[in-house]
Every structure is written in structure tokens, then in C-alpha cells.
Specification:
The complex is a heterodimer. Chain A has a single domain (about 50-315), classed as ABC transporter involved in vitamin B12 uptake, BtuC, CATH 1.10.3470. In chain A, helix 2 (about 40-50) packs across helix 12. By secondary structure, chain A is an all-alpha fold. Chain A has a two-stranded antiparallel ribbon with strand order 1-2. Mean pLDDT of chain A is about 85; it is low at about 360-365. Chain A has 13 helices and 2 strands; from the N terminus they run H-H-H-H-H-H-E-E-H-H-H-H-H-H-H. Chain B has 2 domains: about 10-245, Rossmann fold (3-Layer(aba) Sandwich), CATH 3.40.50; about 265-515, P-loop containing nucleotide triphosphate hydrolases (Rossmann fold, 3-Layer(aba) Sandwich), CATH 3.40.50.300. In chain B, about 35% of the residues lie in helices and about 25% in strands. Chain B has helices spanning about 50-60, 80-85, 105-110, 125-135, 150-165, 180-195, 210-215, 240-245, 305-310, 335-340, 350-355, 360-365, 385-395, 415-425, 445-460, 470-475, 500-505, 510-515, and strands at about 10-20, 25-35, 40-45, 65-70, 75, 90, 170-175, 200-205, 220-225, 225-230, 265-275, 280-290, 295-300, 320-325, 330, 345, 430-435, 465, 480-485, 490-495. In chain B, the strands form 4 sheets. Chain B has a 6-stranded mixed sheet, with helices on both faces. Classes of the chains: A mainly alpha, B alpha/beta. The interface of A and B includes residues 226 and 232 of A.
Chain lengths: ~375, ~525
């Protein structure tokens, strides 16, 4: 009983903070909508209810959770080791490319094929994340800089390979469809709710288990919270941070694989169909407090916003009058995202400052 | 020498200064401190005597709880270093406050930058003034080199020039020689003499007895927040200074069972270790700690103790020499290997090394054991029930005051955090225990508990290396002690064979055999 209360207390603060943040974002967003001359009530009704109109809309909403969860996990695992990984985008591109190649050019039986492609994508994304980790620990390159650069390198690699080598001769703006044997089929016909959803949730649970229930996870968290104490505990902080970045990158790679093998079946040569999921994952992770289970909830929230955005336009148009422009919808969503990310960001900044203060304290002593 | 007219010729007068820190630590118990204009005034004392607190109050970085400050006979309220600078007070801290990527010139003018026409920064304007200063004082630095490329001695010169550039005529130097080579010390002293000729007032904080004799005119000795004496330097012997610095009324002794020590378990052979700056902090230390004995290392902090402990614990590279633990050469082995071979380490700074505040007590109780059976299985999965049982036992055996092993370590008091660390290290059943500053900042009850535990370890036949800046603690617990000064052992002896004076001399940099030969000064 006592344990349950402490457990609840542990979660009440972050959850209530997240809810308050959502409300603040909604209020600020309302002001903008009012200024633009629309009704906030209609706006939000549409934004939040679009996903629940009918089963199909709901399942489509759920399908957005798949890549969001993966890229958010990428951010979260790295953040646990105190690495600020904004490279999920690039890790996702690499995963998408490798999944695409394995799905197209290797012939395997139906059940095995997607898993081989997924593992290959995990390794590719993992390698991409690990590069940033190793640059940080061996050469002290700031991970923010290196992951941004690696994002661009990945973008142009995929852009090049898809434009010149694996394009679809019949439709050269994209790659050919991956083989049917490598696809994750829809769980419900006619929706984009594909079978990889189950795997994505499963991966989130594995990550939770890894971070909280294993020696490796213990060491990752120790390095993130107090690297000098971790070192004292026989942990090599650089090595653990690199491993964390490998796992993080792997999750990013999975996002790419699921988009290719599930939702789309191809990548466009300019990557338009996979763009930005990696960056959205940062916000998802911050709202989910860098916790795998929190991420599942927050990615559901983001998925609702995502599918609601289109609904708003329709709902707010009345007899000849044009609805709220999509751009404005995105702006309001942006405000909500910022408001919701603030507590998570504050936590990260606070942890960093404290780390620095501790070092100063030692220097002063 | 110049005679100053006026009511008094005191540049600084601090009267009845009391400082009580939040938490109740009394750092200064009514200190009177007066420095005449144009003198070099030594401020001598061991750790915790209150030297630094006193000058921090003078410099405005701390506020006194009670007391008055007069600068040139005028009562003042120093609210901040800015105020102090305006009154002509400058301070060089032990740890420099320079910006590494800025050049020496930029660092010197920082905070008081010359403004040219149109309000545009014109640093060059300051160059000639600074060059003149360098000429006058003999403190030469290449002004266009980024500070990060300067040696430690040069950085200190930049700090001093920075004070002089602001026209400071009261200079406070906090342990200025701690970071200098012997040649640089000589140069610094030359400079200080020149400053005295120029009628500047200098407060020179130190624990080094020979330096007090060499450079100061007057010395005030602090002990535990009180002034124990103010004397003209040439009227006092180095032995008397030593006695004043460490003199103790009654030595508090713990009940200690006599015990024959056994085999050496920890052997250091000619150990050399670098500090973070890349200078040698440990210079050829050799010692042996035998099972069933406590070997205490005393000395003023910052004389290489931290680096020595880190080297033994596998947290800092050994440049030269050997460490032998339980018969195996473990020089530069990683902490994990050392724990396997039977090392227990109670680190100096529990928040930096010993504990992860956000982790639960249970998680902290296996720090260093997180991959070991029975806490993790072969798959690397943590065995939560076993970890909880272990933590519960630790809490019980070492009377950690905690309701449950699942609360975060941050919710414990400092004393209980330390008990947790000590308990964890002992439950590893180590052959050798290295305890660094084990009772620092703890209340009386916790302190006593930790000390008794250390003695129990000794009685159980473990080899204990105790490193502490608390001289009483070292004398009370140790079977043998060594005093460390500038990276070397000044001497090793049984505490009962040493006089207070001898200990004070060793802490101040005189070797034991020199003392016994009678050649201290």
C-alpha cells in the first residue's frame, strides 16, 4: 500500500504538469484563433474529435503513433544517458533506406522478410546514432551539432541512392514498392493501421524494460544522472553513452522501417513522405517525460492532433466561408506542443545545470 | 618606510566578526583582524580555521552574521566584490576566475573595459597602462596569448595584474603558492616585496610555515574560527607557529583495542600522479597498509590527497610507480577490477562520486555491483527482490534512517547518505578500505558512528587507509599516520610518538627527519 502511494506520488507531478501545460497551450491558441476570427470552441472540438468520429478515423490516428513512438524513444533513450539526441530524423532516414533495400532486393518468406528488414534498419539507424555517440565521447564533439549534421548527411545519402539507384522506373520520383512479402499488412482492411503497430508498442515496452530492469539500463541512467558517480561504480561513461546512442539510433531506424514496410511501401526521392517524424519525436518524448510508457500516451495525443488538423478546416467552414487555414492549425498546434514540452525541457535543463553546479562545487572546495 | 597620517594607520580593521552558516556551522567566533597599511600580513591556519571565510567577508562574497569592517578607518559595508573593488580591495582566489579563450589583455580589462569614441570598446587603450604596470611590477605576461595557453603561474600573474589595473591597493592572496613551482614562488615573493615598497597592503593566506617566515611582516593565526595569536614574524620561531596553528587543548581519544597488524594488503611504490592541470600532485609516495591497521594520512587539503585516493581507486591514471592490492599489481586497473580484488572506497565527495541522488536507496546500494550475481542474472536483468533485500539489510545493519529502500537518496540527510555509502562498501566485504574525508559535513552522532565503524573494520582485520583533513580524526583513529605536503609524505610515525609541534611542522612543509635532526628553520 505504502509502495503504491509513493508510486502514485512519483507520477502525479509529471502527469499534472503535462495536463496543465496542455491547458495553457489551448488557452494561448484560443487567443490566436479568436484574433483570426474563428470560434475556438468549434476549432478545438474539431481538433480533438476528428479522431473519434468513426472507427476508421480512430485507426488512422493510431497508425500515426507508430513512427512517433519510435523517434520519441530515440530521443528518450539518449536523454536518459544525458545525450541530447536530435538525430532521430537522420537515423530514421537511414532505417527507411535500408528497410527499402532489404524489402526490395532480398527475397525471403513472408513472415521472415519484414523482420530481417526491421533488424537491418535497426542496425543502420543504430550505427548512425552511434557515430554521434563516439564523436562525443572520443572527440568531444557536441551531440547537437553532430546529430544535425548527420541528419543532413543521411538526407542526401537517401536522396542520392533513391534518385540514382533504387528509383521506380515507372515513377522515378519514388522508389519501387518493396516486395509484398516484406510488408506489414493492415490489421483492418482499408486503413493504414498496420501490423507494425503491435511491434512498435512491443518495442516501447522492451525499451522500458531495458532502461529500468537491466544492468545496462541502470548504467545508462547512472551515467545520465551523475557520470562521476557512475565511473566510481565501475562504469565507463563514454562507452555507455555510445551504447545508449546506438540503441537510440536503432529506435530511430525502426521509425523509418515501419513507415516503409507499413504505411507507404516506398520512399519518395526527396523523402517527402518520411520527413519530420524525427523532429516531432523530440516533442513527443519531452511530453512523455522521456519515459517509454509516457511516450505511448503522448504519441497518442500527438496523433490526435495530427489527424485533427485536417478535420478542423472542414469543420470551421460554414456555407461558403472558408475554414481555418491549415497553416493556422499548424501554428496553434505548435503553441500547444511548446507549452507541453516546457516542463520536460525544464527538467532536462535543471539536470544539466545541477551537473555543472556539482562540478563547480567540487572546484570550490 | 612611509608614515601615514590619520587616526590609525590600519588599512583593514575587522572587529568581532562572527559567521554562522545556514545549518548552524559557526565558521568565525568573533574574530578581530587588523592589517596596517604597507605590510605583508600572513593569515595562517589549517583547514576549517576560517581563513577563507574571513577574507570572503572582507571581499564581499559573504556577509558576516555580526561584526564591523573598517577600511582606512572608515566603517564600511561590503555588499559585493564590486563594492570591495571600489574601495581598492582586490583578491586572487585559489581557483582562477579567468575566461580561457580570451587573451590576457582581454581578461585584465574585463569588467572595466576602456570605451573609445562613439562608445565602442577600445581595448588597445588599456595596453600601455598594463605594459607600464608589468614594467613596474616585474610581472610579465604575453598580453595577446589566450589565457588557456598560459601556465598556471602566468595565469596567476594575469589575476594580479587585473587587480592592479583596477588600482587595488589592498591585495588579498588566497594560498597563492599552492599552484606555483619553486621558481615562480620566488618571483611572486619578489613582486610582493616591491608592492610593500609601493606601500600596498597585502593579506597573504597560507598554511605553509616557511613562507610565513620568508615573506610576512606580521602573522595572525586562526584556529577553529578564533584568533589564537597575532605576532611579528621575526619574533616568532617556526616551531611556535606550528604549535599555534594546530595546538589542541585535549585530544579526544576513542577506545582502541591493541591489535597486531598482519600482512600488507595495500602497497604503494613510488607513486606519481598528475592533477587536472597536468602537474604532479603526488610525487613519489610509498607506503604500506597492513591488515588490521588504520593508516591515516593527514595534511592540509589540496596537497595531493584527492589525487592519491583517486589513483588508488582506479579513477585517475598513475604516471609512474605501482599499486599492489592484496598481492596483485593493480596499477591503472579499472574500478571494477579493483572491487573484484577486494577494494572498498568511501569517496571524498559523496554527491559527486558516492551516490546518485535521484536513484533509490536500493539502486544506490548496488552501485558498483550492478552486474554482479545475485543482483543481476546472466542475461543482465536486475533481480529486484534480491536488491531490495540487500538494501533492507544494509539499512538495518548500518542504521540508515530511512522508511523504505525505494525512496530516492536525495531524501536522506547527509549523515544517512554517508552511512549508506559506508554500509555499501563494507557489505562488499573488502580487504582494503580507502576512506576519504569520511565524516566531512556530518553531525556529531553520524560522525561518531562512522568513526566507530572504521575502527570495527580494523578490528575485523581489514586494512584501512584513512585520508582526512580533520587532524583530530586522523590522530584519534590511526595506528600510524603520514603527513602529506605538496604531494610528498613528510614523515610516517605512530601518533603517540609525535608531538603536536612536529605534526604542525610537517603540515607546514618540514620533513620529520629534518625536525628530529633539529634543523627546522
Amino acid at each position: 500500500m505504502k509502495g503504491l502511494i509513493t508510486l502514485l506520488r512519483k507520477y502525479i507531478k509529471p502527469i499534472s504538469e503535462s495536463i496543465i501545460s496542455v491547458l495553457i497551450g489551448v488557452v494561448v491558441g484560443s487567443i490566436i484563433i479568436l484574433l483570426a476570427g474563428y470560434s475556438p470552441l468549434v476549432f478545438y472540438e474539431a481538433l480533438f474529435s476528428g479522431s473519434f468520429k468513426h472507427t476508421r478515423a480512430f485507426l488512422d490516428t493510431l497508425s500515426y503513433m507508430i513512427p512517433l513512438t519510435m523517434t520519441a524513444l530515440s530521443f528518450a533513450v539518449a536523454a536518459r544517458a544525458s545525450v541530447f539526441n536530435i538525430g532521430a530524423e537522420g537515423q530514421m532516414y537511414m532505417g527507411a533506406l535500408i528497410a527499402n533495400i532489404v524489402g526490395t532486393y532480398i527475397r525471403l518468406p513472408r513472415l521472415i522478410h519484414p523482420f530481417v528488414a526491421v533488424i537491418a534498419a535497426f542496425l543502420a539507424g543504430g550505427f548512425w546514432g552511434w557515430l554521434a555517440g563516439i564523436l562525443k565521447t572520443k572527440r568531444k564533439v557536441n551531440e547537437v551539432v553532430s546529430t544535425i549534421m548527420l541528419n543532413w548527411i543521411a538526407f542526401y545519402i537517401v536522396n542520392y541512392v533513391s534518385t540514382y539507384h533504387i528509383f521506380d522506373p515507372k515513377a522515378p520520383y519514388k522508389t519501387a514498392y518493396v516486395l509484398e512479402s516484406s510488408r506489414f499488412p493492415p490489421l483492418v482492411k482499408g486503413t493504414s493501421f498496420t501490423a507494425d503497430f503491435i511491434i512498435a508498442i512491443f518495442v516501447a515496452i522492451i525499451v522500458f524494460f531495458l532502461v529500468w530492469k537491466t544492468s545496462l539500463g541502470y548504467e545508462i541512467r547512472a551515467v545520465g544522472l551523475n557520470p562521476t558517480a557512475a565511473e566510481y561504480g565501475g562504469v565507463n561513461p563514454g562507452k555507455i553513452a555510445s551504447i545508449a546512442m546506438f540503441i537510440a539510433g536503432g529506435c530511430g531506424g525502426l521509425a523509418g522501417a515501419f513507415l516503409v514496410l507499413g504505411r507507404f511501401g516506398f520512399i519518395t526521392t526527396t523523402l517527402t513522405n518520411v520527413l519530420n517524424w524525427g523532429f516531432d519525436g523530440i516533442a513527443v518524448s519531452l511530453v512523455g517525460r522521456n519515459h517509454p510508457l509516457g511516450i505511448i500516451i503522448s504519441s497518442f495525443f500527438f496523433a490526435i492532433l495530427n489527424s485533427g488538423a485536417l478535420e478542423v478546416q472542414v469543420a470551421t467552414s460554414k456555407g461558403g466561408q472558408i475554414g481555418v487555414p491549415y497553416e493556422l492549425v499548424l501554428a496553434v498546434m505548435g503553441i500547444i506542443v511548446i507549452a507541453v514540452s516546457v516542463p520536460g525541457l525544464l527538467d532536462l535543463i535543471r539536470a544539466r545545470l545541477r551537473g555543472r553546479k556539482e562540478v563547480e562545487k567540487v572546484a570550490m572546495a | 618606510m612611509l608614515v601615514v597620517s590619520g587616526l590609525t594607520d590600519y588599512a583593514i580593521e575587522m572587529k568581532g566578526i562572527v559567521k554562522i552558516y545556514p545549518g548552524g556551522t559557526v565558521a568565525l567566533k568573533g574574530v578581530d583582524f587588523a592589517v596596517k597599511e604597507g605590510e605583508i600580513h600572513g593569515l595562517l591556519g589549517e583547514n576549517g580555521a576560517g581563513k577563507t571565510t574571513l577574507v570572503e567577508i572582507l571581499y564581499g562574497t559573504r556577509r558576516p552574521t555580526a561584526g564591523k569592517i573598517f577600511i582606512r578607518s572608515k566603517e564600511v559595508d561590503v555588499k559585493s566584490p564590486r563594492d570591495a573593488m571600489d574601495m581598492g580591495i582586490g583578491m586572487v582566489h585559489q581557483h582562477f576566475t579567468l575566461i580561457p579563450v580570451f587573451t590576457a589583455l582581454q581578461n585584465i580589462v574585463l569588467g572595466d573595459e576602456p570605451i573609445g569614441s562613439m562608445g565602442i570598446l577600445d581595448i588597445e587603450q588599456a595596453r600601455s597602462k598594463i605594459e607600464e604596470l608589468m614594467e613596474e611590477t616585474g610581472l610579465k605576461v604575453d598580453l595577446d596569448t589566450p589565457v588557456e595557453n598560459l601556465s598556471t603561474g602566468e595565469k596567476q600573474r594575469v589575476e594580479i595584474l587585473k587587480m592592479l589595473y583596477r588600482n587595488a591597493d589592498i591585495l588579498i592572496l588566497d594560498e597563492p603558492t599552492a599552484v606555483l613551482t619553486p621558481l615562480e614562488v620566488k618571483e611572486l615573493f619578489e613582486f610582493l616585496k616591491k608592492m610593500r615598497e609601493a606601500n600596498k597592503t597585502i593579506v597573504f593566506i597560507t598554511h605553509k610555515l616557511r613562507e610565513v617566515k620568508a615573506i610576512t611582516d606580521v602573522v595572525t593565526v586562526l584556529r577553529r574560527g578564533k584568533v589564537v595569536g597575532k605576532v611579528k614574524t621575526d619574533e616568532v620561531s617556526i616551531e611556535e607557529l606550528a604549535r599555534m596553528m594546530v595546538g589542541r587543548e585535549v585530544l579526544f581519544r576513542l577506545e582502541k583495542k591493541p591489535r597486531e597488524p598482519g600482512e600488507p594488503q595495500l602497497i604503494l611504490e613510488d607513486l606519481w600522479v598528475l592533477d587536472d592541470r597536468g602537474d604532479f600532485a603526488v610525487k613519489g609516495i610509498s607506503l604500506q597498509v597492513r591488515s588490521g591497521e588504520i593508516f591515516g594520512i593527514a595534511g592540509v587539503e589540496g596537497n595531493g590527497q584527492t589525487e592519491l585516493v583517486e589513483a588508488i581507486a582506479g579513477l585517475r591514471r598513475v604516471s609512474k610507480g605501482h599499486i599492489i592490492l592484496a598481492g596483485k599489481d593493480v596499477t591503472n586497473a579499472d574500478p571494477h577490477t579493483l572491487y573484484e580484488l577486494g577494494l572498498g572506497h568511501i569517496p571524498e565527495d559523496r554527491h559527486r562520486r558516492g551516490i546518485i541522488l535521484e536513484f533509490t536507496l536500493a539502486e544506490n546500494s548496488i552501485l558498483g555491483l550492478q552486474r554482479k550475481n545475485p543482483f543481476a542474472n546472466n542475461m543482465g536483468i536486475l533481480e529486484e527482490e534480491k536488491i531490495l533485500d540487500w538494501a533492507r539489510e544494509l539499512i538495518k545493519r548500518f542504521s540508515v534512517d530511512a522508511p523504505s529502500p525505494t525512496i530516492p537518496a536525495s531524501s536522506l540527510s547527509g549523515g544517512n547518505q554517508q552511512k549508506l555509502i559506508v554500509g555499501r562498501e563494507l557489505m562488499k566485504n573488502p580487504k582494503v578500505v580507502v576512506a576519504a574525508q569520511p565524516t566531512r559535513g556530518l553531525d556529531v552522532a553520524a560522525t561518531e558512528y562512522i568513526r566507530e565503524t572504521l575502527l570495527r573494520m580494523r578490528d575485523e582485520g581489514r586494512a584501512v587507509l584513512l585520508v582526512s583533513a580533520d587532524l583530530d580524526e586522523v590522530l584519534m583513529l590511526s595506528d600510524r599516520i603520514g603527513v602529506m605536503y605538496e604531494g610528498e609524505l613528510m614523515g610516517v610515525a605512530r601518533p603517540e610518538d609525535l608531538t603536536i609541534e612536529e605534526i604542525g611542522l610537517m603540515m607546514g612543509g618540514v620533513k620529520l627527519d629534518e625536525i628530529r635532526k633539529g634543523g627546522a628553520s
